[in-house]
Description:
Layout: H1 8-19, E1 28-30, H2 55-67, E2 70-72, E3 76-80, E4 83-91, E5 97-102, H3 114-117, E6 126-129, E7 132-138, H4 145-153, E8 158-163, H5 170-184, E9 187-192, E10 194-196, E11 202-204, E12 207-210, E13 216-220, H6 233-242
Parallel strand pairs: 1-2, 7-8, 8-9
Antiparallel strand pairs: 2-4, 3-4, 4-5, 6-7, 9-12, 10-11, 12-13
Amino acid sequence: MGSELGDVEQNCDKVKVLCEHLTEPTDVLVLPEVWTVGWACRYFRKTAQKISNSSVIDFLSSIARKYNTNIIGGSFIVKDGEDFYNTCPVLNREGNLVATYSKNHLYSYYGCDEDKYVTAGKDPVMVELDGVKFGLTICYDIRFPEIYRAYAKEGADILVNCAAWGAKKAVAWEMMTKSRAIENQCYMLALTQSGYIEDEQYNLGESRIIDYKGDEVNSLMKGEGIITSNLNLQEMYDFRAKSPILGDIKSSYEVKTLCVK
């Protein structure tokens, strides 16, 4: 989806309409980064909400109950004391908030000043939904394979990256999301906002469901909409058993620098 800048209510209405396309039972619904306000940092603090009385959480809870689905709710800006965080909420089928993950790496280059508006989260968060383990990340986190490896070592089944990714970085987005799936032998759900932002800036709008070998299961390459797939976890487990590459990871990789004269 493409978000209306700074308009939480309108963006909730847009999600509501998009969800009307869910014609089959759905286990997990995943939304993009800062779908509530769009990628414009100046709106972050203005629209921030406390988790304890959040209209965004209330809205997602109603969607979870209506469609009997778990929700990985992209992200919205959360106020906690004096701090602000870019936070992904996770709700179960009953509409209960069961986990939150705050973006660990903040993108603050090329005119973006995310670190001036929000604080970086401290820890990775993996959440189990219906017996399936999801490793949560947001946007710029994709450039740090260490966090995904940590999830893999803890038994992750599916890696998730909810993003608002710039249109000029299409190659990086495709290559890194597929690489995280391949190197960790996990499914990857990689989705980003679409459409115009402002000041001649655009979201990439390339969303993919990627399997544990790096192949695309499904994709939506532009525009707004919903893509769905059935993921066969048993096939992934069998693949891992035949090629248990994660067991070959060394406990450390000490670099020896040689000076040749």
